[in-house]
């Protein structure tokens, strides 16, 4: 019988596949495999320890850690005893941790190390509901209110296995499994209530859409505090296939080669950075190597476009594709380990140029869409029908429709139970008929493929009355290897302007080549040659946009946006409102004509 709760799913998988690999993780420079049977024992020990510490049915259990094995174990351990997991991004400041812990009424928190522990201790006196702090790595030392990992696990000895079995059996599909706090690009985060039924419905639907084979290996590096990563981890539990935990983003290239995954999920910004790095490497080679690279990509692109159109591949082109693959494309795939069958992109719109590049290399990126409020999944492209530029059809059991104003609405078992402690916001987001209002504007093809065109709230309305989606402009501009981030601006203005940040690696190499001897971000951003370079990059990409969408003035910032400074969400989406407020003076000067902002040749007053 199909599982209806996380404890039932965990029980079925760990019993039925006890001897098979569940997780891979790296310790002391060596990859270690752990079976489902071993995980069953460890997770049940964690769950019994939670019971020993007085965690009651539906109590909240927080986790403040990087993506790692113990994150999943703590999450599953909480679920088995009827607890509710509350993920906190490891990049969160102490004040952010305090807000989430207080709003969720969390009674226990797992913290990764002493650095994360310090955040909790800094606000400990403001956390009346928090009773226990468990340190995963390191020693609690003289902190009387902190338990180290071994001490925590030892507490399980006082709780019989039968007691845990009874608690697991009492968990119901409509009860909460997790509170996921939206990272959000504006405002205070909301606690999205996801039930066991939400999770099971979502992973069943998503898994039916994805070609996950039994022998596949999944590499996970997205933050588990984000529901997108949790969705992928639970899909691997459902199938089941082993998940390897990447060490961290800096070691991701090495981990790809060591693990050699068959699939992984990521956000568009990561694909864009890899794309830019590959192009930069190709451009730095000899003239012959550059020509060979561009020829091979061109051949792969022609094949990709014919497949997209459902056309057959001519014999000569098939031969050229085989040669291009042997000389160039296979080497790009080797950077991902050489066994990659497909990848998923979600959490933000994907640049079609980047998607087509990877497809040309033989790496299909299946773009999908989801939001925290629908358990991070509603639509995804399929491996045998991957239509670039769309987010694919809905998954089984999910409904979609386009409202009269163009907003995309969803309904199904994946839709959240509501916002924690916020019934008013819940009513604003889910209507009386159960439709979730996403805030996305989209189009639906006759055969059900959804295309997102813009965001309802982010639309720029120029002084000339033009409605403009800033995300489209920004995606086009980010195809420049020298541009890292762009924030388009221009609501009620005569034209569109932008804040631009530079890609440190690419601009650094360019500066050396052109004899610009400065390590200062401010000096490099303000240098006339840098401004000339970026003006040319913008001018070239403006040709892909309608006249009223083009960037006609810009300001280069001395450093890239960051999560720590509140400019990016943990999934690398720009916090538009915060960035605009921080740099409003510079933006307004672009319209006053007092800023040193070179305008591309396409300037006008549409």
Write the layout of secondary structure elements.
Layout: H1 6-16, E1 21-27, E2 30-35, H2 36-52, E3 60-64, H3 69-80, E4 84-88, H4 94-104, E5 108-111, H5 114-122, E6 132-135, E7 146-148, H6 149-154, H7 161-169, E8 176-181, E9 191-195, H8 196-209, E10 218-220, H9 227-238, E11 243-245, H10 252-259, E12 263-266, H11 268-283, H12 287-308, H13 315-334, E13 342-345, H14 352-360, E14 365-369, E15 379-380, E16 398-402, E17 407-412, E18 418-419, H15 423-429, E19 436-444, E20 450-455, E21 460-461, E22 467-468, H16 470-477, E23 483-489, E24 496-502, H17 504-513, H18 521-526, H19 528-542, E25 551-556, H20 576-582, H21 584-592
Helix pairs in contact: 1-2, 2-3, 4-5, 8-9, 12-13, 12-14
Please, could you describe this protein's structure?
The protein is an alpha/beta fold. The chain has 3 domains: 6-260, ANL, N-terminal domain (Rossmann fold, 3-Layer(aba) Sandwich), CATH 3.40.50.12780; 265-455, Rossmann fold (3-Layer(aba) Sandwich); 460-592, 2-Layer Sandwich (GMP Synthetase, Chain A, domain 3), CATH 3.30.300. Helices cover 39% and strands 19% of the residues. An 8-stranded mixed β-sheet has the order 2-1-11-10-12-13-14-15. The chain has an 8-stranded mixed β-sheet with strand order 7-6-5-3-4-8-9-18, with helices on both faces. A hairpin with a 5-residue loop joins strand 21 (460-461) and strand 22 (467-468). Helix 1 packs antiparallel against helix 2 (36-52), helix 2 (36-52) packs across helix 3 (69-80) and helix 12 (287-308) packs across helix 14.
């Amino acid at each position: 019988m199909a599982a209806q709760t996380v404890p039932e799913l965990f029980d079925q998988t760990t019993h039925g596949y006890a001897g098979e690999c569940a997780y891979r993780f790296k310790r002391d420079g060596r990859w270690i495999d752990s079976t489902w049977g071993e995980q069953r024992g460890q997770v049940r020990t964690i769950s019994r320890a939670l019971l020993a510490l007085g965690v009651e049915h539906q109590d909240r259990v927080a986790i403040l850690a990087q993506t790692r094995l113990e994150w999943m174990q703590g999450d599953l351990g909480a679920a088995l005893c009827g607890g509710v997991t509350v993920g906190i991004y490891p990049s969160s400041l102490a004040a952010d941790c305090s807000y989430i812990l207080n709003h969720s009424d969390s009674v226990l928190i797992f913290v990764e190390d002493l650095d994360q522990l310090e955040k909790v201790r800094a606000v400990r006196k403001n956390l009346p509901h928090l009773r226990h702090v468990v340190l995963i790595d390191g020693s609690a030392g003289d902190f009387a209110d902190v338990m180290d990992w071994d001490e925590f696990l030892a507490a399980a000895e006082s709780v019989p296995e039968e007691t845990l079995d009874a608690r697991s059996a009492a968990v119901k599909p409509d009860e909460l499994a997790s509170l996921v706090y939206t990272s959000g690009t504006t405002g205070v985060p909301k606690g999205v209530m996801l039930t066991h039924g939400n999770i099971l419905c979502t992973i069943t639907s998503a898994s039916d859409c994805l070609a996950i084979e039994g022998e596949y290996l999944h590499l996970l590096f997205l933050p588990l505090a984000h529901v997108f990563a949790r969705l992928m981890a639970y899909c691997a539990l459902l199938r089941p296939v082993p998940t390897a935990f990447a060490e961290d983003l800096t070691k991701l290239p090495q981990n790809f080669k060591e693990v050699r995954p068959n699939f992984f999920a990521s956000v568009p910004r990561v694909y864009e950075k890899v794309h830019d790095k590959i192009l930069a490497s190709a451009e730095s080679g000899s003239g012959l190597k550059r020509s060979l690279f561009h020829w091979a990509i061109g051949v792969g692109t022609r094949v990709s476009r014919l497949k997209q159109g459902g056309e057959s591949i001519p014999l000569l082109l098939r031969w050229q594709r085989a040669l291009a693959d042997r000389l160039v494309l296979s080497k790009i795939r080797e950077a991902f380990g050489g066994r990659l069958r497909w990848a998923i992109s979600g959490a933000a719109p994907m640049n079609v140029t980047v998607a087509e590049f990877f497809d040309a290399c033989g790496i299909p990126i299946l773009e999908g869409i989801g939001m925290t409020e629908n358990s991070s999944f509603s639509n995804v492209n399929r491996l045998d029908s991957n239509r670039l530029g769309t987010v694919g059809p809905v998954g089984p059991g999910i409904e979609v429709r386009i409202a009269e104003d163009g907003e995309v609405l969803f309904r199904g078992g994946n839709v959240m139970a509501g916002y924690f402690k916020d019934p008013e916001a819940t009513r604003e987001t889910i209507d009386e008929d159960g439709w979730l209002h996403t805030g996305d504007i989209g189009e639906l093809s006759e055969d059900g493929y959804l295309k997102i065109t813009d965001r309802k709230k982010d639309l720029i309305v120029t002084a000339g009355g033009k409605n403009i989606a800033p995300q489209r402009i920004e995606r086009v501009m980010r195809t420049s290897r020298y541009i890292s981030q762009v924030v388009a601006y221009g609501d009620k203005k005569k034209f569109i302007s932008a804040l631009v940040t530079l890609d440190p690696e690419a601009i650094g190499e360019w500066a050396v080549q052109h004899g610009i001897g400065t390590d200062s971000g401010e000096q490099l951003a303000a240098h006339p040659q840098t401004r000339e370079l970026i003006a040319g990059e913008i001018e070239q990409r403006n040709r892909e946009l309608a006249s009223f969408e083009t960037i006609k003035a810009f300001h280069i910032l001395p450093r890239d946006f960051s999560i720590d400074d509140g400019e990016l969400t943990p999934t690398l989406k720009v916090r538009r409102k915060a960035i605009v407020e921080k740099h409003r003076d510079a933006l307004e000067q672009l319209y006053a004509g007092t800023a040193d902002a070179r305008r591309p040749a396409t300037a006008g007053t549409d």
